[in-house]
Structures are given as C-alpha cells and as structure tokens.
Amino acid sequence: MNSIKGIRRLSTALCATALAFAVTGASAQQKTTLLVYTALETDAMKLYKDGFEKANPDIDIRWVRDSTGIVTAKLLAEKANPQADVVAGLAASSLALLEQEGMLAAYEPKGFKELTPAYSDSARPPSWVGMDVWAATICFNTVEARKRGLPKPETWKDLANPIYKGAIVMPHPASSGTGYLDVAAWLQLWGENDGWKYMDALHENIAQYVHSGSKPCKQAGAGEFPIGISFEFRAHQVKKSGAPVELVFPKEGLGWDIEATSIMKTTRKMEQAKRLADWMSSKEANQITANWWAVVAYPGVAKPLEGIPANYEQLLSKNDLNWSAKNRERILTEWSKRYDGKSEAKPN
User: Signal peptide location in the record (predicted)?
Assistant: First the structure.
C-alpha cells in the first residue's frame, strides 16, 4: 500500500515539474524581440537595455549599432522593406529626414508632457522624442601642443590658422552625426558662401577625417594629434580618464543635435514598440542619460559634469534641424567633392 502511495506522490511531483517546465517554456516563447537601430555610445547601451528589460521582462532589445550617418543610410536603403521596429539614440536631424520620407509613426509617449518641448518634434503627436542634446567640443592636448608650440584655440576661426597645419582630426560628416552637425552649424552660422570658405581653410589644417564622432577626442587624448573636433560626452570621458586634454567650446557657438527615439511606421510589434518609447521618455531613462550628457530632455535631471561649463546650454548655436535634414544630401555631396581626399579608409 505504501509503495502505491509513493508511486502516486512521485507521479504527482513529476506532473507538477512537467507543468512548471511547460509554463516556463511558454513564457520564454512569448518573449518579444524588438530590433532597435541605434547610434548610442556603447558605454550607454547596456544600461538602457537592462533598465528597460527589467521593467518589461517580456521584451528583449536586440541592438543594431553603427555611427549616425551609417545608420541613417541603412534606414533609407531599407525604405521599401524596413527591418527595424524602433530607432533609439539617433540624431534628430536624421529622424526628421526619415519623417519627411514618411517612415516614422507619430506617437506621444506616456509622460511626454514632463519633457522639455524644445527637444522633441514640434508636431503633435511627435514623430521623434528627444533624449539629450549633444554638441561640438574641441579636445586640446596641452602636452602635444606645447611640444609643437601651438596656442590653445578659442574660436572655430582660430582652427583655420596655418599654424595648426596637420594638427587637427575631425569626424567625417557622411558617417558621423557629430561631423554633420559641425558642417551644418558652420553653414548656418556664417551663411553658405562664408561657411564653405571657412571649411576650405580648415581643410588645409586637417590631418584626417575619421568615421566616428568619438575618435578625434580619443586620438587627441592619446597624443596622436594635438586637436580633435568631437563632442562633449566623449570629451568629458577622455578628460575624466586622466588624459592631458582641455575642453574648448568655441565662442561663435556650438553646433548641436538631439539624440532621440522614434517608432518605425512599419513595425509589426507596435504595442511593444510603444512601451519602449514610453520607457525612453521616462525619468528613469533620463537619469541614465544624465551620467554622460549635460542637457537631457527631462528637466531637473541633468547634473554637473567635469569640464562642461555651467552655461553650456547657452553656448548652443541657432540650429534649424529641419533645414539640416532637408539639405543633408546636397551638403554631403558638396563636402565630399571638396574634401574626401583626406578621409580615413572605411572599415570593412
């Protein structure tokens, strides 16, 4: 009799275990993967993924990352058959171009009204929602400059001085969002004629155009070149690492753009995509962003960062993102015709 009871208990236990495995397996099968195209810095991607998936355990983010220009070109090339569900951490000037092409879904995330309106699409509902502002910054290696007898530049125009010949590296505007915001800013600051004249003079001093917004500051920090035109996130990180760099914020004004989030109109996972857009607009996500950025979309969340001036937001130049988007192809064609000879070879 006892053996029969034992067999029944064992049978019940086995059934319960099998049921538990079945439930676990079903849960795993129900997990939705969102394909997210991004130009976010790799330093930040894990924190966003971990934070979102903790709040949404039934969704998994799969990143496809590259520099801004390459992600933008990839999205435009896929226009007839888009692959991404969401775009996060891409330049607003690129997203404005995608919106003009009819590729984005208009959606107002939960909590949107808490965000600074100026850092999102002005349409309601918006096609893109800002995360942070990033802007041009010059990384100046004081040790290398002293060796070469180079003065510290204070303005963009200073960089056209022949004393800096071969001393400057800059991001390529076709592959780097930072490179494009520089070019767009100079054309808006001085007008097209004077803007191109300035870039002609600057080109004489450029050692190389590289395919990353971060790389020029890393190169300056490592002493490969005295001057790297970059942006404040990477400049702050390089300075914080102990490299002998000073951060220069040119007096004429800083070119800038906005990292933002958009939902692709063609996604078949709209409900999950909206949940990601909601989370990227949340205070929690903005607190992650504030680890590196001096200006974030959620008011009151940003904190002082080493090397970034307190009046940083006031240093941003006037910037028409829609103009930058509309004229992107024309500007990049002209830029390449003039300056591509000094471009770094593209990685395979």
Answer: 1-28
